[in-house]
Structures are given as structure tokens and as C-alpha cells.
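[09:14] KT: can someone run the structure on this one? pasting the chain below
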Amino acid sequence: MNTSAIPRKCIELSNLPAKDIKSRRLFILADGKRSIEEIIRLSAISEKECMDLMQTLLEKDYLCIKEQKEKISFNSAGQQFTGPINDSGRDVSFFIEKITDELAKYIGPFATVALSGFEFPDNTITLSEKQAVISSAVDEIEGDEDKKKFLKFIKDAQL
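[09:31] RB: done, C-alpha cells below
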């Protein structure tokens, strides 16, 4: 793992299932501004243990590495490809808007509030972040049939 890489949170602290203080400390220190090297220094944990815990957080998609972010964009046919996010004018806000609009059909105006915790300040989104948004939206829907309809919409819209 590159110690100059900058990890950032992919989920909220309240959603972090790890209850041990060391993992939570590393998660809190990963603010999208500090490198792994800085986090190790500030964490008061041995380098090896810190790297192991950091690797676990990354593997479980609780953290992601800023430099390795995979940018998602769309071509004119609406198909996903990797590249600069704004090539075709469809960006993260388009994705969030479509998910919110569809979710509103099932839970009403609360859909905006349900997805308000997801922020992508650099206007890029990883596949794991997309999955987190979709998973959060599905959790808000009651009834298995409605959940299936929602997921079918996402698949058909190639979101």
C-alpha cells in the first residue's frame, strides 16, 4: 500500500460496524486530507498494525484511496465507461438526482433527506460509493416487490 495515498471515508462513522477503538480512530483520521503516513503517525498504533487495520477498512469499502478513485461517466448512449466525469455532461449529481427521483416514488419527499448524507465534493464517484448510495436507497423502501422494482429501474437506466 502506498503510504503517500490519501484515504477518505466512503460511509459515515455511525455506519461503521467495527467497534474497536483502533479501527474507529483510523477511520476518523482518514479525512481525505491526511496521507496514510500521517495517519500512522497520529494514530499512536504500530505501523504494521495500522497498515493491517487500514487494509481491512479499505477491503470492506469503509475507506477508499483518493488517488485511485475510478471516475464514472457515460457516453451518449448512456453506457458507463471510465474516464473524466464530465465528458458528456452526466455526472455525480445526475446519478444522485435519478436515484432520488426514483426513490421518491416509493417514500415520497423523504427521499431527498434519505440521500442527503452522500456528498462527492470532487464530483467523482467510485463503484463502491455508487453501491453504498443504492444500498441506502433500497434500505428506505418497504416491501420486497418495491425493492425489486427499484433495482430493476437502476439496472434498466444503467445507473
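[09:33] KT: thanks! Residues 26 and 87 are 35 Å apart (CA to CA).
[09:34] RB: yep, looked fine to me
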